[in-house]
Design goal:
Helices cover 38% and strands 15% of the residues. By secondary structure, the protein is α/β, with parallel strands linked by helices.
């Protein structure tokens, strides 16, 4: 693997498969242990540098690092020198001077992790930057699909909703295509990004038309906090056309699964009965996130030579 994980494009098929296989090995190694820890990164320091609010991702990375026996520093922009005007570069250099080996960063500006990677000697992991990418989310989603369906090659994945503002959608499109899946995006035209025609996907505006052939349906949250204009007539209209309810779930093939990166808007993009159904992998995704992020930290810091 490369020294950093900044976007899904950093991973070729072999690298991505290595992460998934390593996550499976780690999960297996921990399964029989009373204390869920491995000594692999003892003496290493991982900094969680979060400029945006997060629950699942921040806790997942913290738990992953601790289970590998690394020292963990949780840094929140609120209540730090950032609130006094300190720049991202100075914050990063300060953390590196304190001995950080890896920085896991979430930032509201697209491209911030790439800048960070130019300034520090250690590894940088992108935990979500603006509307750009979220590569470890795509990895845990791919891991979950492989776990539930037994394969990724040829799997038909339908990604539904606010693609325009979704870093999860971007990372999933590129990673799943790399791993041989067939991806279809379904959204209102207003919620598809410019240039989507160059992505390795098919595009549809009709959710009901694509469900009968889907192996995986991945619902996306409508990110109202990133919207400064009206992208659809109303929440009710959006839910009627692009929400996954019990009736639509019934149109899926028998072994198809339903995914959501969270947090969910229950009743809007996904009905409660779907989110809590046996087809749903939402809880599995959260659990798998720890194993996959352990694999990423292990490979970047301890388990593979630097290829750069």
């Amino acid at each position: 693997m490369k020294r950093h994980l900044l976007e899904a494009g950093d991973l070729d098929r072999d690298d991505a498969t290595l992460v998934l296989d390593t996550a499976a090995q780690i999960e297996s190694a921990l399964a029989g242990r009373e204390v869920k820890k491995l000594p692999t990164l003892r003496g290493r320091t991982v900094v969680n540098l979060f400029f945006e609010d997060s629950t699942r991702t921040r806790i997942s990375f913290e738990l992953a690092a601790k289970r590998l026996s690394a020292d963990v520093i949780n840094f929140s922009a609120k209540g730090s020198s950032v609130s006094k005007g300190e720049s991202l570069k100075d914050t990063a250099l300060t953390l590196e001077a304190m001995g950080s080996d890896a920085i896991v960063v979430r930032h509201g500006a697209s491209g911030a992790p790439h800048r960070l990677a130019q300034w520090v000697q250690g590894s940088v992991v992108n935990a979500g930057d603006g509307t750009h990418e979220h590569p470890t989310q795509a990895l845990l989603d791919a891991y979950t699909i492989r776990q539930r369906l037994g394969r990724l090659d040829g799997v038909r994945v339908v990604v539904v909703g606010d693609v325009l503002h979704s870093r999860v959608a971007r990372s999933n499109v590129w990673l799943l295509a790399t791993l041989g899946a067939e991806v279809t995006l379904v959204a209102p035209p207003t919620l598809l990004p410019v240039g989507v025609g160059s992505w390795p996907v098919q595009v549809s505006y009709d959710l009901d038309a694509v469900l009968p052939k889907a192996d995986v349906v991945m619902m996306l949250r409508v990110q109202a906090e990133r919207m400064n204009a009206s992208f659809f007539p109303s929440a009710r209209e959006y839910s009627r056309r692009y929400g996954l309810d019990g009736r639509r779930m019934g149109a899926l093939p028998d072994d198809a699964i339903v995914m959501h990166p969270g947090p969910m808007n229950r009743g809007m993009e996904i009905a409660a009965e779907v989110a809590d159904s046996a087809r749903s992998t939402i809880v599995d995704q959260v659990g798998n996130g720890v194993s996959v992020r352990m694999a990423v930290l292990y490979l970047l810091l301890g388990g593979a030579p630097d290829s750069e």
